[in-house]
Amino acid sequence: MGESISGFQLEHAFGFNVNRTAFLMTEEIARRFKVAGYPMAAQDFGILYQLEQKVSMTQVEIASTLMRDKTTVTRRIDGLVKKGVLARKSDPSDRRYFHIELTDDGKRALKAMIPLVRDFQIEVLSDIPEEQRSIAIKVLQAVTEKLTQIKYQE
């Protein structure tokens, strides 16, 4: 592959590779969820997992934690409520807000999904030495921190 303008090569760009990896991982985990009887996306798992950790959150808190826009999170939550794995409860002190909670079905789904995600991670990373995995996580965390600083400078 030849070089393009100013020596830039897309296939060597950090964001391009992170995006491709994330796409492939989210597609594969969604496939595995579906095979296991849980037709949900990786983003759905993220919502369920956060709620298991915190018990109850508002849609705004979920969007902020997962770094997703509110509209996307609202759509995902709507779908998960329809599937019976989440419930919306109005906030008694402020009726503009809803608290999102796992239902018993949601807790059961998450209990089945966590081992799928854990095993998938182990499989995908099995050929990569622990030291390299640790470095990759540190680099991704540093890039995330820098991007967060940039975002909030504006």
- Could you give the distance between the termini? 37 Å
Strand portion = 5-15%
Q: Domains counted in the coordinates: how many?
A: 1
Report the C-alpha radius of gyration, rounded: 18 Å
Total DSSP E strands:
3
| Percentage of residues in helical conformation | 55-70%
Low-confidence stretches: none
**What's the architecture, going by CATH?**
Orthogonal Bundle
- Order of strands, main sheet, comes to 1-3-2
- Largest sheet properties: 3 strands, antiparallel
User: Structural class of the secondary elements?
Assistant: mainly alpha
Average pLDDT works out at 92
Q: Considering the protein shown, what is the CATH homologous superfamily?
A: Winged helix-like DNA-binding domain superfamily/Winged helix DNA-binding domain
How does this model look, in words?
- Strands 1-3-2 form a three-stranded antiparallel sheet.
- With 154 residues, it is mainly alpha-helical.
- β2 (86-91) and β3 (94-102) form a beta hairpin.
- The protein is globular and about 55 Å long.
- The model has no long low-confidence stretch (mean pLDDT 92).
- It has helices spanning 14-35, 42-54, 59-66, 70-82, 104-125, 130-153; strands at 56-58, 86-91, 94-102.
